[in-house]
Specification:
The protein is of the alpha/beta class. It is 37% helix and 23% strand. The strands form 2 sheets. It has a 9-stranded mixed sheet, sandwiched between helices. It has a 7-stranded mixed sheet with strand order 12-11-10-13-16-15-14.
Length: 432
């Protein structure tokens, strides 16, 4: 397995530093070895204390890792002092390993994480060894010695940092006063700017996680441009998935992509299992002409790409059975669930059944709450689906909706629930 080494401080709240690095590297399929430079007592509101290790203790950790494992990339984070930074630089100077230098000086909560003598050691000893250095604007200003406030000064700073010896620079633009956040990558005499919408909320650990993503991609053999762009894409998702673990700055989630994929898999498996059971139990007189169609949305779904659906297929018995789950399938039913979720985010599942007066009476006898929607002539199915907004005046999401007069799919009964399992429970109540 590929191994990357992170040399950084420990964060007791687990949102930044060594703890974030391990999770970020693991999310990229890389094993994280560590050398701890300092133990911090911090949370999401403040840094209460910093307890640095002796430089020889930091180097001893690096020695232990390098003598045993084949390390494919190294990153440095919080080094705290010139003594530690110089010792780390001295140890790494004899190694031919890609090095990412994240010049950490301030915690996400705003407190300092360095001594005044750190900057000169970074400039003179460590940055000359760097494959890429990843400062934010305040860190870049400390390193180059002048204000960085617009595109011209950003480019000037990138060139000056490269002149210190770094092969590449990724200057993060989150602190710049602009409508979008622009990160600038400088490598091989060329600039690349990557802009994303600005997030008006701070995140704890973002810089550590970005540099860890970068390190992981370098460890896997990707070049500077590819590593930087992949890291940028991953950090944007991690920031969007930030969450609160305390009373202060939200914590950036380095495992966001893995958690998303796991959740999508779980949603698809649950939908498929229930659809098979429902297909076995559902009488033919309850099946719409278009076949059995179900959907199950991810929590906080925003588009039909976040809704897993089942489109029917024609089986050997000459009727339509549920197919394989796929995100974005049964998109009209997915749109309906998204509309319902705007009123009640917990109601994430739906299934369409054939409407007959007898079936409608069975739904009523089961004691389910019902809303009736009558479609006007000339209104397409696509537009009529959005009439789930009609539930908003009700103040609650009904268990079933009767759609009368659909011009294409015919009248139908739409069951709504929090999950596919609840849909099956409601169907069993209806069937008696």
């Amino acid at each position: 397995m590929l191994v990357a080494l992170t040399i950084a401080g420990s964060d007791s709240i687990g949102g930044a530093g060594i703890e974030a690095d391990i999770k970020a590297m693991a999310s990229q399929g890389v094993h994280a070895a560590v050398a701890i430079t300092a133990v911090t007592a911090q949370n999401t509101t403040r840094v209460a204390g910093i307890f640095p290790l002796h430089p020889r203790e930091v180097v001893a950790q690096i020695d232990a890792v390098l003598e045993d494992a084949r390390v494919s990339a190294v990153k440095t984070g919080m080094l705290y002092s010139a003594d530690i930074a110089s010792a780390v630089a001295g140890r790494l100077s004899s190694e031919d390993i890609p090095l990412v230098v994240d010049p950490v000086m301030v915690a996400g909560v705003g407190d300092a994480l360095n001594r005044d003598d750190l900057v000169s050691a970074l400039r003179d000893r460590l940055i000359p060894l760097a494959t890429i250095v990843t400062p934010n604007v305040p860190e870049a200003e400390a390193l180059v010695g002048y204000p960085v406030f617009d595109e011209a000064t950003v480019r000037h700073a990138c060139r000056d940092l490269s002149d210190l010896g770094a092969k590449a620079v990724m200057l993060k633009g989150g602190h710049l006063d602009s409508e979008v956040c622009v990160d600038t990558i400088y490598y091989d005499g060329k600039f690349l700017q990557v802009a994303v919408p600005r997030v008006d909320l701070r995140g704890h650990g973002g810089g550590c996680i970005l540099s860890s993503y970068l390190t992981s991609n370098l460890a896997k053999g990707a070049g500077v441009w590819e590593s930087a762009l992949k890291a940028k894409e991953a950090i944007d998702e991690a920031i969007a998935s930030r969450h609160e673990v305390g009373r202060g700055v939200p914590v950036v989630e380095p495992l966001a992509a893995r958690m998303r994929d796991a959740l999508r898999y779980q949603v698809a498996c649950r939908l498929r299992a229930v659809s098979r059971q429902m297909a076995e139990e559902l009488p033919m007189e309850w099946r719409p002409d278009t076949g059995l169609r179900m959907v199950f949305a991810l929590p906080e779904a925003r588009s039909t790409d976040d809704v897993c659906g089942l489109e029917p297929f024609l089986d050997g018995r000459e009727h339509l059975s549920p197919g394989c789950p796929a995100f974005g399938a049964a998109s009209d039913l997915g749109e309906a669930v998204l509309s319902v979720m705007r009123s009640d985010g917990s109601q994430r599942a739906a299934v369409d059944l054939r409407f007959t007066e007898e079936n409608a009476r069975a739904v009523r006898r089961a004691g389910l709450s019902i809303e009736v929607i009558r479609r006007r002539r000339g209104v397409s199915d696509k537009r009529a689906t959005l009439k789930e907004d009609a539930i908003m005046p009700l103040g609650f999401v009904p268990d079933a909706m009767f759609h009368r007069g659909a011009p294409v799919k015919g009248s139908l009964i739409r069951l709504l629930a929090a999950s596919p399992e609840e849909l099956l429970t409601d169907l069993r109540r209806i069937l008696g």
